[in-house]
Structure formats: structure tokens, C-alpha cells
Amino acid sequence: xxxxxxPSSRRRPTPGARPALSLVIAAFVGLASCGPAIPTNGISxxxxxxxxxxxxxxxxxDRNILRPIATSATDLxxxxxxxGVVNFANxxxxxxxxxxxxxxxxxxxxxxxxxxxxxxxTVGIGGLFxxxxxxxxxxxxxDFGETLQVWGVTEGNYFELPFxxxxxxxxxxxxxxxxxxxxxxxxxxxxxxxxxxxxxxSTISDRGRYSETVDSILYDSADSYAxxxxxxxxxxxxxxxxxxxxxxxxxxxxx
Length: 255
Hints:
Blueprint: H1 7-11, H2 17-33, H3 48-76, H4 79-103, H5 107-122, H6 131-134, H7 144-150, E1 158-161, E2 165-168, H8 169-181, H9 184-187, H10 194-209, H11 211-218, H12 224-239
Antiparallel strand pairs: 1-2
């Protein structure tokens, strides 16, 4: 039921509303004006024993469930259909990327990703196809972990998340925020968890497409935990523009 409200009452701010809003804006401006976090050298993994237990759980999950499903899907699902699923999932993530671009004050990237979403959602039939790339609108994924890095939040400790795999303190918090940050999730809330289903299908597709690489890390390495940890940190730091020298990385097999 909608209750009638006197027009003047809608215009009158509640006590303390403006100060509170000013504090929020000031906090945002202050964070956004901070320089990027200082690049992290080496590996900080004080909870390695617990992380290895989670890694063993994820490894068993991959061996018994994800890998067989991904292999079967690769054999049974035509490549164009598989590519369409990945395109669709990536397109659903673009509004969240745009929000993060704005929070990072990278407005050019926000415009580019908005244009990419518009093209692929219309000409690309809801994102099943990727005409934006053909048109030269490449875009670049982003997330709240990167936003935190831009705001000056340091990487923190490494740890492995159940089901989600390698992460850090900063990126784990970023993943949590990203679940609720994408404005598209509010629009498709009543359509059956479409973003989540699309993400799972995309993950299965990627597992099948990059099967040889993933298998070499998880099953052919002398220490799959150390190898996955090192590769994640190297790739993540590179993506964020944090490129330490080779000497800054510890030997993953050193005791």
C-alpha cells in the first residue's frame, strides 16, 4: 500500500540527512583522491596450513565434478553455443564494471564499457554475440578489488576461498561487494538468478577451453598450491599495474 505524503514533507530533509550525505561524499572524494596502493612484494601467506586445506577441497571439487562436466560440455556443446554463453555472462558483468570505473574516477573507461554494453545488448542480441569488439570497442573488465587498490588499500594476505579459488584480503572483500554492486542484479532479480547461472556456465566453459593449462597447474605441478598461488599473484599484480621485479617473488617451493 502506498501512503499519501504531503508534498512539503518530501522536500524537507530529515534531521542530520545533509551532514550524513556530506560525510559520505567527503569520504568518497577522500578515498578516490588517494594514490594507488604501493605494490606488494613477495608472498604473505601466514595461514598457509588452512589455505592448503581449502586448496585440497577445491582440488577434489575440480577432479570429481567441475573437470568431468567441463570435459563433457566441450565434447557435446557446439563451440558457437559455448562462446555465446561466455559472451552473455561477460555482458552481464559490464554494468558492475562501469560502476567500478566511476568509483575509480576512470570516466573514459566507464564510457567505453557503457558503450560496449549498449552495443552487445542490442546488436549482439542480449550479449550472445560480441559486435562491440568487431567495432573496436574493446572495454576492460574491472572489479571492486581493483577499486580498493586505486583507493590505496594494500593487497593483504593471500588465501584461498572455497569454490572461488585463489584470492587476497583485498580481492576477497572486492568479490563480496561485487555481488551487490552490479545494478543489473536489481533488474533481473525476479528472473531466476540469471547472472549466477550464466557465471557458472561460463566458468564451466572456461574450464573446458583451458583444460590443458589448468591441468598442468593442478595435476602436473610438484606443488599445485604453491604454483596456483604464485601464478595468481603475478597475474593479478600485472593486471593492476603492480609489476614487481622478479627478485621480489619468493621461490614457491622454498621451505
